[in-house]
Amino acid sequence: MTDRLTRRSSRARFAPLALVVLLGAAVLLRPGDDGGALLLANPDRTQVAELQAAFAALPEAPLVLVGLDADLGTYPEIRVAVRAALADLLARDARLAFVSFTPEGRAIASAELDRLERGGFGEDELLDLGFIAGAEAGMVRAVTDLLSDGVEGSVADAIRVADVGMGAFQLVLVVGGGEMGPRSWVEQVGTRLPGLPIAAIVPTFAQPELAPYVRTGQLVALLATLRDGAAYAADVGGGEAAEQVPSALAMLLGMLIALVALGRTLAASLWGLGPVPGEGAGTSNRRRGGGRERDDATADAADADVEAAPERAAEADAAAETDPGDEAEPASDAEREADAR
Amino acid sequence: MRRSLPGATIVVVGLLLLVDYIIINPALATLADLILELVVLLAAAAALAGGVALVLRHWTELVERRGDPPGSLALLAGFTVILLAGLYPGSSGSTDPAVRWIVAALLTPLIAALFALLFIFLLGAAGRGLTIRTREGTLMLAAAAAVVVLLLPLGGSAGDWLADAADWTLAVPIGGAFRGLLIGVAIVTAVHAARVLLAVNGAEE
Fold first, then answer.
1. Is B10 on the interface with A (CB under 8 A)?
2. Of B106, B130, B149, which marks where a domain is finished?
């Protein structure tokens, strides 16, 4: 019994290492260009086509406002699509102004601007409008008063000349995931500037909330799943963006590991099969019929411990009587232990 | 019937902004802009007060050796570095290259790395959740497992079928439940707003 537990324990110790090696191999082994048996992109291209149509409808050298308020936890899911969309817009000679209404969004916008500037784009194409405080109130105010006094550059000049705040832009691309997502944009900006098209890229969890806005036309396009993002990046992103799409094999392996783990815990919970999660190695899984029974050895050890506790308390009492100068802490500890058991 | 100052303020400000939204009037627009500016300033002041309270709390804990001194030290050091980068003479504030570098090269990767551990922690939490043996927990994890199956990145006709099923699941059952929740929340909010406007007893509790 002890040998078996020791073997199981040593195997368990290598499990995380095996997981890391497995995932590393999966990342390195990418599928072929045609996807083969693995395919991340959504075969339904409706959402991709809508975003491409929204971009195609833009005039020459358009002004596009990028509302970047993603969440750091979910941004990796949409990063590929966002970068592909920004590259697509810049390829169409668009001038991009970035604004954020959440601190997290500001951090991501800062990182993306830094990346674009390192890619050779300057103040003729990019404008950093920074972080605007006040959540919805700040957004409403920004509809008419977007530029602060110190902001300069050719993009800022174009907005200033138009003198209509957000009305100067031909498109708003909202990158959501945080508190101030496309819904806030539709409610606060869309209602005040109904002629300004709003497109959005968000993580999957936001799709059920935003899908109705696409049907009503309040959002002209919505990319809301990793599959849609991968399909869009593969269509328009070119080689660099396609390289950034997560490895389908790595995702498949990670998901299979998750499924195995979930399946084992579910099987243990529903039918008493496999080890009970959260219980120690010394416990068994004899829980058929819905009950939870302790392993005999563990139960015996625990019972023996309970029986021994009063004896230990008596010994401690005796020790305390023998040595009156010593505090009676050991005795009281043993008594507490016995009481607790 | 009782009407407190916060309730009255909410009613007046809400009505003013609503009227400004409906009626085009320069004087009303100026007043609405002023209120919005006040709200923005209040939000900024609240954020500032939060920052000051955070620093004071961790400074006290560091000096009195309570709580987690290394953590407090790291927080204060990070706070100092980002303030120095954003406030040194000649700095352009949050758009300064130094601030951008700290955010892009340190903060974002660190937080992203923390979130990357979610996969492992979620699996651990799923296991622990099932040890409690609640029906809801089991149902939630079974649904999660079904969604993971639907999202498997497979090619061919099996992959197409899974993708279609995933789209349908997202649009119909999940979308329906989600919209039902949203409509319920909207109705409750509207009822509560009406109770505040009409100063019905208990509406401000």
1. no
2. B106
